[in-house]
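Annex B, item 7. Sequence and structure tokens for protein A, then protein B.
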Amino acid sequence: MAAQWTSYQPGPYANEHIRITPTKLADGRDFFYMDDDPAYVSGSKTRELKDPRPLDYRFAPHMDADGHELPYAAPMMRRDPLTGDWIPMATARMNRPITAGPGATATGNPLAARKPGDPYQDGEVPDSDYDVVIFENRFPSMVQVPGQSGEPTLVDGNPLWEQKPAAGRCEVICFDPDEQGLPADLPVSRLRTVVEAWAFRTAEISQMEGIEQIFPFENHGQEIGVSLAHPHGQVYCYPFIPPKMEQELRQSHAYHERTGGNLLKDIMEGELAAGERVVMRNASWIAYVPAAARWPLEVHVAPVRDLLTLDQLNDQERWDLAQMYSALLKRGNAFFDTGDGRGMDLPYIAAWHQAPVRDPRRANYRLNLQFFSFRRSPNKIKYLAGSESGMAAWVSDTTPELIAQRFHELGAVDIG
């Protein structure tokens, strides 16, 4: 299986138990089936590769209401002169379907498997079933347009405002075909396939020209702003170092220059020494509430071994991560007591912070997952008001020790 990939090297488990089948959607976007069903892994059953939709080529020009041809509206990005941050601007995302929440604009689910005879036939999956699938986002915030110049230009001709194409990449990973399912309810074996998907895409996309940071993440819950209620995540691939990562790289590099140590490793070892805020551990991973947690529910997950990126995980680390991620999601759902003993479907963001692709400061970084929710009680959320949004000066509504204490009530620290 590895021969067709640029950089991805499956381990023993993936070689035997996961099959990746690439194809193209009707408009030219990349699509991958990641099967863990033995019938598909063996090849005794095969997936539908042809997308039957009559879609135009994704980068084709289109006609406006007056019949004039307009070029593809490629996402652009402008640099904020006050902060130095790049801000992608993607107007096409205004037209994306929304099927969750009061602002829903579509009744079908584009992440669902195809349903023959269903009136909604604009789904992204050609087959009528799947295990895990990965595909380029139809409404991307960033995309590499063939033949487009990457040279910067100036807004209004003013050197204060530099702009250039947002030439990154955005992908979607669907974790399971069950439209009503929750990631927390998936078996560990399926989450193991999701972990393999993160590693696969990290390895392959890191070889693409112009990509500086690969960010797999999961948004879950209507309160987070999720527009499609389906167990899925995304991979954003930035043509720049995003601001949060820039801060972390700056801090970790300065720490190394000052002490010779690795900041993220020393944080993990400090939390282990303190003990109070460690909420889970197994042979390969440590989960802890950071001593300076911002969110009312926040857990960081770090590998025991020094690793830079997800594709560096070995087989055991991938299995142990699937186990810990499953336990973290289940305990997250049980964190707030709603009075019936069943907890709640927790809105959360699970954000993978891994070393940048090319930045030389990557050597002093370390892979970590930052999991958080802005729910602060069963019926309240934390709003990012004046101090947080206006000055990025955080005010916490709780303490890390109280967060950890609640996790300790939900289950043992040692999980395997």
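Protein B:
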Amino acid sequence: MHRVLVRIVLAGGSVRDLCQAVAGFFGGAALVTTTDGRVLSIAGDESEVERVSALDCFDRTGRLVVEDEPVGARAPGTPGSTRAFVRIVAGSADHGLLGAFSPERPLTPADVHLLERAATVAALAITKEQAVAAVEGKYRAEFLRDALAGRAGEGADAVAHAASLGWDIARPMVVVVAETDENDEETTRSPDEVRSLQERFVRAWVQAVRARDPSVPVAGFSQEVVALLPTGPEPGTDALLRTVGDIAKVVRGDGGGGRRTFSTGVSRTVSSVAELPAAYDEALTAVHVGRQMHGESALAHFDGLGIYRLLALVPDGADLRRFVEESLGELATDDSPENADLRRTLSVLIDTNLNVAETARRLFFHYNTLRYRVAKLERMLGPFTSDPQLRLTLALALRIHEMRGL
């Protein structure tokens, strides 16, 4: 095995080459993961890879649950004794885990020692790949930033430049922005930890996007990741949100491995490079307003923001709070369960254009019970059933009341 490892090093072998060598030695499967458990490479016979991938040490997104997997060999006969993991370390940098899976026999300390030797080769391969990726990523990120700022040049030139980077932007696409919910400017984390977490966030998005389509532009900026996803054969909003949601699910990985929550915004479809700056603004708006509408881990499309797009333009949340308090009075508070119940009744009434029968059906109330509630609401708020301006005011106040983070 030592001679095999030396050959891999001298040939400038990749992580994939190493996994194949380790899998062949153990007669099973081998993999390399990031520190948070994302599988970078896995090798072995197809049947063995399928068996390993179905083990309970992986979550439903395919992430290795590193929090529950010890490093080293387990005692023979104990659960998990036919697999072993070692850390891939280069200097002070932790690059992840190298794991070996045997079909039957328990792995011994001698096997772990061999894995540790192989992990040294893995560290060399990963360090080389990261160095190359860092240079390539810098040029890609600079081009994408220029394109989003309208500085990428004429359409044909920008398309050609993107193609030289391995990206395809000559097709209908949407701008997707994913932004961490934690504000790094107000965090108590150290700068090194923040940088490490952001790099992990970017790598997760790049890997998830490239697994679907390697020609999709994707890069990380500060607290966000930006991707230009093609709209595909189903350009509708629902189809786009499903696609983006699937990618976000892979990146999120059930939230394990020290991953931070993030919100995602999607722009309208664009068909040219010149439209990218406006689409980028739309995606940013969708991220920020979506987080206010739904809280952390929100996913929003710009066309689905509705009136919230205008409400989000108000710079001072105190102004919005005062508007809600003045419009809804005591219903603006949650001092009693009845207030929330009455707000719900008022909201459905307005949504049904004051159709009492339909509102009673939706809320499962008796018709007379609802009429009593309408009378009570008018005593509290005014004659909204006959005053359209008051109805508009109350409708806006209810929408603002639903927003988070004011």
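Comment on protein B: The chain has a mean pLDDT of 86.
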